[in-house]
Amino acid sequence: MFVSLPVQTAAPAAYLPLETSQPQKAETHLKPGAYLFYEGDDMEFLYQVTSGVLRLTRLLADGRRQVIAFGYPGDIIGFSSNGIHHTDCKALTDVRLQPFRRSALERGEGDRILHAAFLQAALREISSMQDHFMVLGRKSASEKLASFLCMLDERVGTESGAYRSVTLPMNRADIADFLALTTETVSRTFTQLRKSKIIAVNNNHTVIIQRPTALKGLARGDCR
Amino acid sequence: MFVSLPVQTAAPAAYLPLETSQPQKAETHLKPGAYLFYEGDDMEFLYQVTSGVLRLTRLLADGRRQVIAFGYPGDIIGFSSNGIHHTDCKALTDVRLQPFRRSALERGEGDRILHAAFLQAALREISSMQDHFMVLGRKSASEKLASFLCMLDERVGTESGAYRSVTLPMNRADIADFLALTTETVSRTFTQLRKSKIIAVNNNHTVIIQRPTALKGLARGDCR
DNA sequence: CGCGGCTTTGAAGTTGATCAAGGTCGGTGG
DNA sequence: CCACCGACCTTGATCAACTTCAAAGCCGCG
Q: Which PROSITE patterns is this protein grouped with (chains A, B) (predicted)?
C-alpha cells in the first residue's frame, strides 16, 4: 500500500493547444477583473486557456467562498455535466481563450481527436482535484501553502538566478479561499515560511523558493 | 451571481449500465474487505459498479488518510490520467463490477458511444468533486455530516414508512476521513443530530431522516 | 460468556478563526 | 513632486471549533 505522492500531472507543463481539425470560433480575450461566466449560466462553450490566469469560485448563501481552481494556460475551463456552469469564472490577468462549442462534448458530434483530448483533460482534472482533497482535508496551514507553492512552481515556476520563483496573480484572499484558510492565516503562514528562509517574497506577488527541498517536504507532510 | 446549490447530479440515481456494443470482459466479484487495486498499481481496467459499495482512499506518509470517494452502483471507478492508480480501492460490501479495458479511454480505440459515456461519467465526477470542495473547505462539522447524508439519500435513500432512510455501509472512521473530521467528531455530530430529532439512528448503519427540510437546510449552510 | 472491534462520551489541548488596529504600496490628482 | 486615498496585507489578542487523549459502553460473534 503506497503513500500519496502528488500526481505527477503530466499536465501540459507548457501550453499545448488541443489538436483539432474542426473549424473553431475565434480566440476570445478578457481584461483583468472581467467575468467569463457566472454560476447558473448556460454552458455554451468550453475554453482552453491560451494565456493568463482565471479564477473559478463557488459561494454559499452567507458568503462563504471556495476557490475551486485557478485556470492556467493549457487548462480546459467550463466542464459541466448538465449544461449549466456551477462556478463563477473571473480573469485575474489579461486572458486569451480558445472556445470550443459545447456540442464537442456530446456523443457522435465533433471530431474524435478533440473528443479524446477533452476526456484526457477531464481525467487530469480529476487527478489534480484528488490531490487537492488531501490538501483541503488533511493538511495543516503551512502544508497547504507549501503544497500550493510547489504546485504552482511545477506548473509555471521559472528559473531566476540561483533559485526558482513563482508569480502569484491572485491575492491573499483568493489563496485563502483556495486552501480553505483565512487571509490572516495565509499572511501569517507566508511570514513563517519567510522567517524560516524557505521562501522570500518580493512585492507580495513574487515568491522565490530558497529551500525547495524543505518546501517539498512540508508539502508532502513529512513533518508538520 | 448565484449561490452554490449542490449540483443536481443527473447521476444515474439508479444503476444504469453503460451502452456498448463492444465485447466485454466478464463481470468481476469482490468480497467485503477485498481490495480492487492499490495506489501505484498499473491501471488495467476501469470498472462500472453494478452493485455494492467501494471506498477510495489516499494516505500521507504519517498515516493521515483522506477518503476520496465512495463508489456506488452506476459509478465509474478507476479513472486515471497516466495509467497509474492514485488511490487504494476497497470493497465495503459484496461488490459486482463490470470491467472495461483501459484502452477504451484512448483516442481512436474502442467504440464512440462508450467513449462518450466515459466522458459524461468523468464530467459528473468533476461536478460532484466540486461540491465536495465546498464541503471540505467551508462547511462546519454538522453541515458536513448533513451534506453527506443528503447526498447519500439522493443517491441511494429509500422510502421506509413515513420517512426516508439511508444505509451506511462504511464505519465512522470512513465517514470522518471522507469529511475531514475525526471519528470522535463524527460520533458527536451524529448524537447532536439525533438529539435535535433531525435524524434517528438504528444499528449505527441505518439513518432515518425525520426532518428532511432541516437536514437539507443544514447541508446548504443556511444556518450553521 | 467473553473477546475484539467499533462507537460514544468526557476533559484538556491546539490550530486556525475572528475581531481589531496598523502598515504598505501603487495610483491619482493637486 | 508630493499628499492622499483605497485596496490589500500584516500583526496582535482573544476565542471557538475541532482534535487529542483517555476511558468506558455497546454489540455481534465465536
A: CNMP_BINDING_3, HTH_CRP_2
Distance of alpha carbon A210 from alpha carbon A49, whole angstroms: 30
Q: What is the pTM of this model?
A: 0.93
Residues 14-53 of B with CB under 8 A from A: 38-40
Would you state the pLDDT for residue B5?
55
- Within A51-161, residue ranges assigned H as helices are 112-138, 141-156
Which of B39, B40, B137 lies closest to A66 in CB terms?
A: B137
Q: With contact defined as beta carbons under 8 Å apart, do A79 and A18 qualify?
A: no
Query: Measured between CB atoms, which of B4, B120, B125 is closest to A60?
Result: B4
Residues 114-153 of A with CB under 7 A from strand C: 140-142
Average pLDDT for chain A: 91
What are the distances in angstroms from CA A87 to CA A171, A203, B17, B133? 19, 30, 30, 12
- Catalogue all structural domains in chain B, each as residue range(s) with its CATH number: 28-134 (2.60.120.10), 140-220 (1.10.10.10)
Chunked into runs of 10 residues, chain B (224 residues) has average pLDDT values of 54 65 80 97 96 98 97 95 96 96 75 86 96 98 98 96 96 98 98 97 95 98 81
| Strand C contacted by A191 CB (< 7 A) | no
Residues in chain A: 224
The number of beta carbons lying within 10 Å of the beta carbon of residue B26 is 7
A54 pLDDT above the threshold of 60: yes
What mean pLDDT do residues A182-196 have?
98
